[in-house]
Structures are given as C-alpha cells and as structure tokens.
Amino acid sequence: MKNIITTLVLLFAIFASQAQMRKWTLLECVEYAMEHNLTVEQFELDLENAKIDKSDAVGNMLPNLNGSTSVSSNTGFSINPTNNLPTNSTAFNVNAGISSNVTLFDGLRNVKQLNRAKLNAIANQYRLDDLKDDIRLNVANAYLQVLSSKEQLKTFKAQYAVTEQDLKRTKELVESGVVPRGDLLEIEATAASQQQQVVNGEGMVLISRVNLAQLLQITDYENFDIADEEFEVPPSDILNNSAKVIFDKALSFRNDIKLSESFVGLAEEDLKIAKGAYLPTLSAFFQYGTRYSDVTQIPDGNGGAYTPNFTDQLWIFDGISYGAQLNVPIFNGWSTRNNVKRSQISLEKAKLQLEQDKLDLETTIQQAYVDVGTFDKAYEAAQKTLEARRLAYEYAKERYDVGLMNAFDFSQAQSRVDNAEADVIRTKYDYIFRLKILEFYFGLPISLN
Questions:
Q1: Closest by Cα among 111, 105, 112 to 282
Q2: pLDDT in tens, 5-58
Q3: Which of 39, 142, 421, 424 is 20–30 Å from 148 (CA)?
C-alpha cells in the first residue's frame, strides 16, 4: 500500500510539473499578448468611448422631452393663482408640465458631428489594429531571440562536450609522453572558458525568456518557456517583388496609414463644423402645463363660487404653448472666424502628417528590403566561414593528435570554429526576423513555418 501511495505521489508531481512548464508556440504567444496586453485593453476602452460618442451625436439630432412638477405650500401674503390678486391665507399648490425642444437647422453641424463621431470610431479601430501589429512584431522578435539563445546554448554545450573529450585524450597523451604537460594546461583553460560560455548562454536563455514573458504580461518566469523547436530559414519569394511594389501594397492596408488618413478626415469634419457656426440656428419648442391650488375659486353661476377638486383643476387650468426660435449670428468677437482658421491649420497639419507617415513607411520598407539582402548574404558568408573553419579544425586536430601542433594553436583553431558557429546562429535568426518584417509589410501573417 505504501509503495502504491509513493508511486501516485511521484506521478502527480510529474504531471503537475509538466502542466506548469507549458511550451508556448509563436502563435500562442501572439494570441495571448493580444488578449492580455494592458495597452490593448486601454485602446479597446477608447474604442468603446468612441462608439458612445457616435450615439451622442445621433441623440443630438432627436427632440428632447422633459417633465417637471412642483408641490408647494405658503402661509401669509401671496398671489391668488385664480385671479392674480393679493391674499393673506394658507394655500397648497401643485404645478406640472412637459416640454420638448428640437433643433431644426444649425448649419448642418449636428450632421457633421455625427459624421465626425463615425470617423473617430474608425480611427480608434485603426489605432487599436496598429498597436496589435506592433505587438505581433515585438513578440515575434522576442520569440526568435529565445530560439537563438537556446540554439547557441546547445552549441556551447556541444563544444564543451568535444573539449572534454579532447581533455581526456590529452591527459592520456601527456601520461604517455607524446605531448608536454603545458598542452594539457592549455586544453584545461579552453574547457574552463567554454564552461563559462555555457553559463553565460544559460543566462541569455533566461533573460530572453523573461523579456518575452514580460511582453505577454506573464510574471511566472520560472515556469514559462517556448516550444523546443529548431527553425531553418523558411522559403520565401518576397524579394521577387521590388521595394516599390511592397510599399504600394503596404499603403493599401497598413493600419498606421489608415489611421493618418482618418485623422485627415476628422480634421475636415472639424472644419465643416466650425464653418457651420456662421449660419443661423432654427429650433422649435412645445410645452404643456397645468396646475392645482386649494384656494382657487370659480363662479358657480348663482352669484357664488366653489373650489374645483384636484382632477377638475388639472383639466381646467391646463395649457399648451409652441413655437420656433431663430438665432442669427452677427458678431461674436471673431471667435467663429478664429475657430475656422484653427481648424484649417489642423487640417493642413493632418495632411502633412499623413505625407510624413507615408515617407516613414517607405523609408522603413526600403531599409527592411536592404536588410533582407544584407543579412541573407551575411548568413551565407557565415555558413561558408563555418565550413572552412571546421575543415581547418579537422586538419589541426589530426596534426595535434600526432604531436605536430601545440595545444595553443589547436585551441585557437577550435575557438575559431566556436565563433563561426555562433555567427551562423546569430545571422540566421537576424535574417529570419528581417525576412518576416518585409513579408509583414507585404501583408503576409507572421509565421516561422
């Protein structure tokens, strides 16, 4: 029974450890970042506010309706509501009414406000989508940094394992008198240096994982890791398109450009709204009211008077008023003219910003296009260098094994191989990321497959 319980505990611990150490793919990282990024949540709230502004603009075009009532009692001098004569008594009064106002014409400013609210909602959506684009790129870059650090760590460990074998063999050669003891010390120094590389590599893996976790708003760094996958350079025909073709396509869908265009549209609507203040405003109103007072006296036709009850007074003393009001702006201290000028300036600034954003996008795409070619060549050169370094190392190893090369020269040959392998890993992931950036500007989703 005791053995069964122990086995169950061990299995539970294994399952719990596996559940905690979830291996994240790139797609999972991107989707999680979209759902949990604090800035995304703030921009989504701004979008909700913009939708409420659109509802406000619609409401401003509709008639309002308000009801009012008042109940009062006064003792002493007052005005009799029936005959408007002074009296000195105690009276109980009730007044009630409803009113409605509607703007018939205000220089079409209410229509322009609605158009502006719609554009503002669209602009906030573009702003949110643009932020998500940036997050995708940042997450992909951080993800590739983790992959690069892990691959470099594997290389460091493999190099250290080879050196340990060389160290063991050198000890045997020293004991047999084939090589001097100084060679053993040189190999031991190389092994210590590579062991330090392994430690530094483990630190780089941890740092890169923490950086990615922070982008995802994850604080459990110890139990966060990405999927153990090795990625080769994915096939791509993006360079079959010129930088101009990529730029023209980017203009048609990039959210940052759409956002700048929507800002121009907002500025145009603001100018129309400002100009609408030059025109007259026509509004209509309707009011219905009634009252009750316990001091009301109405002739009864027989020379006397009586006080109608509450319901009868509400019908007797009700009334309706309605009409229209026209306001014509004549002079307002140049405020309307100045508002129009400010709106014109804002419009010009929005147009200039749009052109600047287009220039920035073109510059970015041109640089990304050049980077892809540059890092592609750098990656090819690093591979050729590594191949040459490995051949030189094999030749040096053969000479060292027969005592024709000292340990210092042999360790230098091995160090050159180590550096070449590190360059291959670095240039590979640099090239992959630049390639994905260029594809992203061409409208292709970020994927490492």
A1: 105
A2: 444 344 444 444 444 467 888 888 988 998 888 889 899 999 999 989 989 888
A3: 39
Please give the model's pTM, rounded to 2 decimal places: 0.77
3-state secondary structure of 120: helix
d(CA 9, CA 20): 16
Q: What pLDDT sits at residue 188?
A: 83
Q: Read out DSSP for 34-52? A: HHH-HHHHHHHHHHHHHHH
What separation in angstroms does the CA of 143 have from each of 198, 229, 425, 446?
20, 12, 14, 12
**Secondary structure percentages of the chain, helix, strand, coil, to 5:** 65, 15, 15
The pLDDT of 386-393, averaged and rounded, is 90
**Cα dist from 333 to 145, 337, 339, 447, whole Å:** 62, 9, 11, 60
Count CB-CB contacts under 10 A for residue 83.
Answer: 10
Which one, of 443, 449, 380, lies nearest residue 234 by Cα? 449
Q: How many CA atoms lie within 13 A of 125 on its CB side?
A: 8
> What pLDDT is stored for residue 301 in this prediction?
73
Q: What are phi and psi of 71, to 5 degrees?
A: -125, 130
Strand partners, 70: 95
End-to-end CA distance of the chain: 50
Buried b (16+ CB within 10 A) or exposed e, 384-397: ebbeebeeebeebb
The DSSP secondary structure of 320-349, one letter per residue, reads EEEEEEEE----STTHHHHHHHHHHHHHHH
The reported pLDDT for the residue numbered 345 is 96
Could you tell me the residue ranges of all domains in the chain? 22-62+106-279+329-441, 69-105+283-328
Task: Convert the pLDDT of each residue in 119-177 to its tens digit.
Answer: 999 999 999 999 999 999 899 889 988 988 888 888 888 888 888 887 887 787 777 77
Give the pairing type, strands 22-24 and 224-226. Answer: parallel
- At the top level of CATH, the class of 22-62+106-279+329-441 is mainly alpha
The residue-averaged pLDDT of 282-290 equals 94
Read off the pLDDT band of 449 (50, 70, 90).
low
